[in-house]
């Protein structure tokens, strides 16, 4: 290529670059969006739009503003112990409960705190299945209602009534069920050292052949303010949930995870009263008395009691 032709092309390129740099930058989408919103605000303020349209625009602008402020604030995830220590009962569902993972065993990703709620499903065994029961499923949730543990349990006795319409348990569920000993060990590890929440909880512990300190139990069926819903007797979990929490459970077959969540919500709803009643029944042990002060040694200038001198015996010659 000739030198003159190269210079000519370079000059053309320079002119093109100059034109490109002189062009004003295209306004950003956010700027256009803000301009559109300010125009809408002006039109709404001037009353140039129908009232229904004005109301819709105001709602949309308010929603966008709240979303923007929410994004600008970096929120730290609240720990389970912080939630448990809070007295806020306005939002009982801190987070939407996760989906039920049936027979998933231990949920390793779920955070555990001081409180866990338990519920069990039973099946009928023996010649009188209406009266004799065996454990068939156990579920535990944490303070937020998140599933901590769920497992089908193999019965040691032949099942004569699956009670499917109530328990939701079917024979095919036992194909992947865990042994009673395995479930006992895992549940015992979860509840040890924690406060256990449940409804008529002694039935669940009896079915699992486990014990738990009474001072670490919060039973929603025995809570005095809740017993008024049954005329002083033992209220049904379904009734308490409907009357006090405002939603329905046990419409069909029961879900032990759902029932455990309802128990935890009932406890949280009146937690202060639960703990007050607990303190009355199980007062804190008195502080140990201080140890008596030891006698200080006598000063050096203080006279000491004279020691009795033994008489020397004379030697006989």
Automatic annotation (TrEMBL):
The keyword rRNA processing belongs to this UniProt entry's keyword annotation: yes
SMART domains, per database record: EXOIII (SM00479)
The keyword Thylakoid appears for this protein: no
Subcellular location: Nucleus
Gene3D superfamilies to which the protein is assigned, alphabetical: Ribonuclease H-like superfamily/Ribonuclease H
Gene Ontology BP annotations: ribosomal large subunit assembly; rRNA processing
Pfam families cross-referenced by the UniProt entry: RNase_T
Biased composition (Basic residues): 306-317
InterPro entries: REX4_DEDDh_dom, REXO1/3/4-like, Ribonucl_H, RNaseH-like_sf, RNaseH_sf
Keywords of the record: Exonuclease, Hydrolase, Nuclease, Nucleus, rRNA processing
Biased composition (Polar residues): 1-10, 21-30
CDD domains, alphabetized: REX4_like
GO molecular function: 3'-5' exonuclease activity; nucleic acid binding
Residue ranges of every copy of the Exonuclease domain listed in the record: 114-276
Ranges where the record places region Disordered: 1-52, 274-317
Cellular component terms (Gene Ontology): nucleus
Function: Exoribonuclease involved in ribosome biosynthesis. Involved in the processing of ITS1, the internal transcribed spacer localized between the 18S and 5.8S rRNAs.
Sequence similarity: Belongs to the REXO4 family.
Protein name: RNA exonuclease 4
Biological classification of the source: Eukaryota, Fungi, Dikarya, Ascomycota, Pezizomycotina
């Amino acid at each position: 290529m000739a030198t003159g032709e190269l210079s000519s092309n370079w000059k053309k390129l320079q002119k093109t670059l100059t034109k490109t740099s002189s062009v004003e930058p295209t306004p950003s989408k956010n700027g256009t969006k803000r301009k559109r919103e300010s125009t809408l605000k002006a039109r709404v303020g001037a009353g140039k739009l129908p009232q229904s349209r004005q109301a819709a625009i105001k709602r949309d602008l308010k929603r966008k503003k709240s979303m923007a402020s929410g994004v600008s604030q970096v929120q730290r995830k609240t720990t389970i112990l912080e939630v448990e220590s809070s007295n806020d009962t306005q939002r009982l569902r801190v987070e939407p409960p996760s989906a039920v993972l049936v027979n998933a065993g231990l949920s390793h990703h779920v955070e555990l705190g001081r409180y866990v709620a338990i519920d069990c499903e039973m099946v009928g065994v023996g010649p009188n299945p209406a009266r004799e029961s065996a454990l068939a499923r156990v579920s535990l949730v944490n303070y937020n209602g998140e599933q901590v543990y769920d497992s089908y349990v193999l019965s040691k006795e032949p099942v004569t009534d699956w009670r499917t319409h109530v328990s939701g348990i079917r024979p095919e569920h036992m194909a992947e069920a865990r042994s009673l000993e395995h479930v006992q060990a895992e549940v015992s590890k979860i509840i040890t050292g924690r406060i256990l929440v449940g409804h008529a909880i002694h039935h669940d512990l009896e079915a699992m052949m486990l014990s738990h300190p009474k001072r670490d139990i919060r039973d929603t069926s025995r809570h005095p303010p809740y017993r008024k819903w049954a005329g002083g007797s033992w209220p049904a979990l379904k009734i308490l949930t409907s009357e006090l929490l405002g939603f329905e459970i046990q419409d069909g077959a029961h879900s032990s995870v759902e029932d455990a969540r309802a128990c935890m919500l009932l406890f949280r709803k009146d937690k202060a009263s639960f703990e007050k009643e607990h303190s009355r029944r199980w007062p804190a042990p008195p502080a140990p008395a201080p140890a008596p002060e030891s006698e200080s040694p006598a000063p050096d200038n203080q006279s000491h009691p004279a020691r009795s001198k033994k008489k020397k015996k004379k030697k006989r010659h």
